[in-house]
Amino acid sequence: MKAYQEIIPHYQSDLILYNAILSSGLRITPSIETDIYQSLLRSIVSQQLSGKVADVIWKRFLDLFDLYPEPEKLLNNDLIELRNAGLSFNKARYLQNVAEFSLQNDLSFEKLILLSDLEIIDLLTQIKGVGKWTAQMILMFPLDRPDVFPIDDLGIQQGIKRLYQLDEEKTELKKKMIEISECWRPYRSLASKYIWKI
Fold this sequence. Notes:
By secondary structure, this protein is mainly α. The protein has two domains: 4-30 and 149-197, Endonuclease Iii, domain 2, CATH 1.10.1670.40; 36-140, Hypothetical protein, domain 2 (Endonuclease III, domain 1), CATH 1.10.340. Helices cover 61% and strands 0% of the residues. Helix 3 (36-46) packs across helix 10. The longest helix is centred in the middle third of the chain and has 16 residues, at 89-104. 26% of the residues are buried. Its EC number is 3.2.2.21. Residues 45-198 form the HhH-GPD domain.
């Protein structure tokens, strides 16, 4: 993929976003991570939590496994011990679901980079506790796929409403978001990352 800074001029067809990026002074860089299994676990831990809280719970979780939660060890771990690390019952079960799925399916970086975005979403959402949003986060961050638009993400919705001064809600907001984002193709992932930051 092109260097992120080379992509920014592409957004000149949307001067609102383009000017916001330039005036922000932000510089986003790729964040490829080849351990997709661990990225899935971290994404589940982070769901609906602030960054600081998620970091604390993630560290407590890793401490249960000498810093790496091998699938077999995670499956053998007592749910009470996972709860004591700060995880909800559902999140603890979802983490074990990921571990079980990873033992039965190839989640290696080398395998996933051969699949399309839709194929990866279809694969990962077979795991109970992994929805489309989580799969999109895997596409956008560990895999650094260029054209993902997480339209259901609350941060993206609020960011676009603020940046474009929109009053629409729910279905009408999503329609407007799709309309706005069309000119960002094929780099909607990077546009979304800037909107989160801005």
